[in-house]
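User: Hello! My lab partner asked me to get a predicted holo structure for this protein. The small molecule is zinc ion, SMILES included with the sequence. Please write out the structure tokens.
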Amino acid sequence: MSETLELTKALLKKASLTPDDAGCMDLMAEYLQQRGFVIEWMNVGDTKNMWARRGTSSPIFAFAGHTDVVPTGPLEEWDTPPFEPTIKNGLIYARGAADMKGSLAAMMTACDGFIAEHTNHDGSIAFLITSDEEGPATNGTVKVMEALNARGEKIDYCIVGEPSSHKNFGDMVRVGRRGSINGYLTLIGKQGHVAYPELVENPIHALAPILSGLTAEIWDEGNEYFPPTSFQISNINSGTGATNVVPGSLELIFNLRFSSELTPETIKSRITHIIDQQSDNYELVWNLSGLPFITERGELTSAVKKAIMDVTGLQTELSTGGGTSDGRFIAPYGAQVIELGPINDTIHKINECVSVDDLDTLSATYQKVLENILL
Ligand SMILES: [Zn+2]
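Assistant: Hello! Below are the structure tokens for the protein in complex with zinc ion.
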């Protein structure tokens, strides 16, 4: 059994539901310590955070990731128990196999291989690991980045181990993410009997022109790195359930995944403008979950493209699609950040799995990236 597979299995046996690390980082710390890393714990509240660094000079090349996993869902729907890693037909099944314990193991063995050959490498290799990525993500990477910044420790290059591959390992990496903002709109009307329209104000009717305004809006055209901004409504709630009552209010939740062409401020003012034209009795609450970030073509994109080509023969695609990741907390400090990991088609699902072969390919790719950057 390869060492990457062995480490993956050891991590997968630990039921590390957010924010419980369940001993994963202790295992990683012990491995890294034996290879010259200095371990620093930066725990916040119930979240465990590890900063491990080998070397004292610049540049700092960091691997970033998380040990926590999402809940399993109904256990009876799993073919094998989610915390008993099981290999079948070349795939290893367990919660966290693809997202992202396989990546953590591959990072560790990549470092082992690199250090064995280049003990006195230039610069530093680091690990930024948290147990709060799948949850609220308030006590994890964001806090470590603040602490590093406060003492002037700057990550230059960062590989996040999120599962980025689409159909084949290495066919896609993420070089940025769209921003994400949620809006919670409450339209306030006046409840009453349906038979007396003059006595009611129907918030559902008031929504109709707002809805058509919001859904017809072209937010931007995107740009070289980002697809056009998208607007989606996820929830509409109103009505009492009775057939003869006009409801007194309506609640609507929407989300925008936005490109770097827009800012939260411009989004807020454009949406408020559309609503203001139709209603003067509403409440709107915003929740910004992340700003867009982009790693433009440079040393890290070249190093990653070349590594993937060397190891797999694939020309990788630089993408900004997909959900958010902790890369959004690292990039604003000026680091070049790329997400590179295994195939993501089973993440968060029942019977999550990853290809056993891909684990070794991932490790080899991470090691090549280290060589391309630090040698
Ligand atoms: Zn993840």
